[in-house]
Every structure is written in C-alpha cells, then in structure tokens.
Design brief:
alpha/beta; binds flavin-adenine dinucleotide
Length: 414
Amino acid sequence: MGPSPDTVIIGAGQAGLATSYWLTQLGVEHQILERRDSLGGAFQDRWDSFYMNTPNLALDLPGMPYDGDDRDAFISRAAVVNLFRRYAELISAPVRTGVDVSRLTAAPGGGFHLETSTGSMRARNVVLATGAYQVPKVPALAAKLPAGVTHLHTHDYRNPEQLPDGSVLVVGTGQSGGQIAEELHAAGREVHLAVSIVPEAPRRYRGQDLIYWMLETGKHGPDYGVNALTTKALPSPAARFAPNPLLSGTEGGHAIHLRELGRRGMHLHGHLETIDDGDITFSDDLTERFTAVESTFAQRSGKAIDAYITAAGIDAPEQPRPPGDDWLPSEAGQLNLTDANITSVLWATGYKLDFSFVDLPLVDEWGYPKHTRGATEIPGLYVVGLPWLTHHYSAIVGGVGLDARHIAERISDL
Ligand SMILES: Cc1cc2nc3c(=O)[nH]c(=O)nc-3n(C[C@H](O)[C@H](O)[C@H](O)COP(=O)(O)OP(=O)(O)OC[C@H]3O[C@@H](n4cnc5c(N)ncnc54)[C@H](O)[C@@H]3O)c2cc1C
C-alpha cells in the first residue's frame, strides 16, 4: 500500500474533502481512504428524484464557495454528486477509492494501525469522516409484517415504480418520509402515513431561506451572545440526534405541512404501535403530535434566529403568523393491510451512527464519539461531519468546513 502517510482521513464525502482542503493548505501530508468506487459520498444513496433540502447558498465548501447566480434554488442528486467530484479535482484531493477500512486500532509505539481491504497501514493521525447517516434504522416490528408485503427502508427506495401496485404505508414523517410520501401521492398512490414528531418549519423565514438563518445564527450568534444553535446550549445529549425540520427542496423548495398532506388525501395515523397478522395499530395521539410538530420550531430555532436578528441589529421583515389550522383526520386507529390494499411499507425511520470498525474507546453511551471540537479523547484521532459536533450546521455542506478547518489546524500544530 506504499509508505504510511502522516494523516489518514477515512471517508471522502463533504466532511473528508473539506478536511483534506485545510490539511493541504497547512502543508500536512495526508491520504483519504474511501470504500466506495466513486466520489459523491452518501448523496449517491438517495432516491432518484432527490433534491437537496438546503438551498444553493449553503453549498459553500472551503476553497470553492458557491459561485452560481441562484442562491435560493436547490440542486438535484446528480448535481450535488458532480459538485463533490468537481471539488475533489479542484483541491487535488489525495483520494484512494475502493479502500474499506475494516478495523482501526492503536499501533504499538504510537499512532494508528488500519486494516483495509487492500492491506494494512499506519498513520500518526486519523480523521473519521465516515458520515452521520451510516446504518438505516428499521424497527424490530418489521419482522411482524405478513409475507407478501414488500417493505424497505428509504435508503433502498428509488422511485414509485419500484413498489408493487397498491397503497403504501410510509412510517415516519421526517424529511425523507415527507418527501417520498409527496412523490408517491403525486404518482397516484394511495398513501398512509404514520406521523412522527419531526418539527414543521417555514421554508422562508424573515425574508430568507430558513437555512440561511440557521447557518448565520450558528456561526455568528455567539458573537452577540446567542448560543442557542451551538452544541453547548443543547438541553441533553439526546438532542444531538434531533431530526432536521420537515422541508423539501423539490419544486423550487417548500415546507411540508402534515395537515396539508391530509387535506390532499393522504391518510394520517399516529405512531405505528403493533403489527399482528396484518392488523396494524397506531397510537391515538394525533392531536398531541400535531401540536408538537407545529410548535417546536417557534419555541427553539425560530426563537434563536429572532434573538440573533435583534442582537445583531439586522433589518429583516417580521414573519407573518401562520393561519390557524385545526384540520384533523378521521382515520381509525387500526388498519388491516389487506382491507386497505397496502402492498408495501416504507420505513422512513432514519439512520444511526456506526463506529464499530474503531477498536478503541471512542464513543459514549449514545454511540457518539466523545470529543472536544472534533478532537476525540484518543490523542491523534479526530471526527468531523456529525450533527451538532460544534453547531447545528456541523453536518451540512455549508457548515462542515468550519469544523474541518479547526481539526486540520489542531493536526498541523502537533
Ligand atoms: C436523507 C438525507 C438528506 C440530506 N440532505 C441534505 C441536504 O439537503 N443538505 C445538506 O447539507 N445535508 C444533507 N444531509 C446531511 C449530510 O449533509 C449528508 O448526509 C452528507 O452526505 C454527509 O457528508 P459526510 O461527508 O459527513 O458523510 P458521507 O457523505 O456519508 O461520506 C462519508 C464517506 O465515508 C465512507 N466510509 C464510511 N466508512 C468507511 C470506512 N470504514 N472505510 C472507508 N470509507 C468509509 C462512505 O463510503 C462515504 O462515502 C442529508 C442526509 C440525509 C440522510
């Protein structure tokens, strides 16, 4: 495999490439190992019609700021994958694709030992840029679905034609569930939705796309004493895993409102509780769910953004109050799959972290690396690209570069 590099970055998604940019700027010799055969990171796993939820203004990468003329538009899966390929070329990223790191341990005498699909190697420093959305989560309940019902995680979903004819039950209403439900409904499918408590939020807030304010408040809020979108202000370690708001980048970008989906004809249910021989039970708490979904943004991120706008003296228009909406579905709390002609179930139930290849005491009881600004408790081992690593924006394209810079500086200082 050649001589050992000073620093190895594992993963060539946006986080790995951004770290590589800064290491190159600082003159740190390094190599990126990527298990996939092609660049573009996990965005290559998204469904066919996927559009970024974050607008172009958030496509800034270190050394390659967004230079288009439509900061408020959204790009497709193919465009974002191409963007990362262009970026890797521009920064001459030293990537080796097709190299899977199967085990990372401490090397005798210092540094790290890496077992990879192409042999073993050593490095003085290792940066884990392996992604935050690694392993699709599928509830154990899935095993109770009757044979003959097709079921898959959104990770494996590509397009409506992939599913057998008939109605679809989408379990979970985060960004993926909401967006795919819209696609299935538009394709003429009868859609049932098991509603989760992912917050709704306005696409446009106080004259800007919401993501603009999330990035600005996270980056500059602390200069004005507004720390609410920084990790220090999180109410609990569990809050690091809170889902992103229910927004979509399709059709020019829009917010997804659950009651609106119901009015359009989708069947809204509570949380999926039991599956028993084709009979499905949902929790009887949709009203409470709608309350949580519709109030969280104003109480948390919206409040933080308002505080930042005021503290920084920014001239931004007031946000009109959304009209009250008390529409409620009239669905029963139970459903028989055959009676409802549900032939497929889509698990829109998110992802979990996976650092199982790291044979070192890296993670806390939540499976999240123990770290300070990306430097783990193991000297020489760093992590980048996780949600709430330092800020709310740490895992999104326009935000990851700041953490990457800090980590590269730490490495070059050693
Ligand atoms: C459904 C969904 C939609 C999203 N939409 C947006 C959006 O619109 N805007 C936005 O900014 N963010 C979005 N994100 C969040 C995030 O930006 C993306 O997940 C992004 O791909 C994360 O980049 P990354 O570099 O951290 O990780 P990844 O893109 O996952 O890259 C990590 C790379 O590491 C490689 N790797 C992992 N383990 C190993 C190993 N052991 N050995 C070798 N290689 C390894 C993987 O193959 C992968 O290519 C979305 C996430 C999801 C799940």
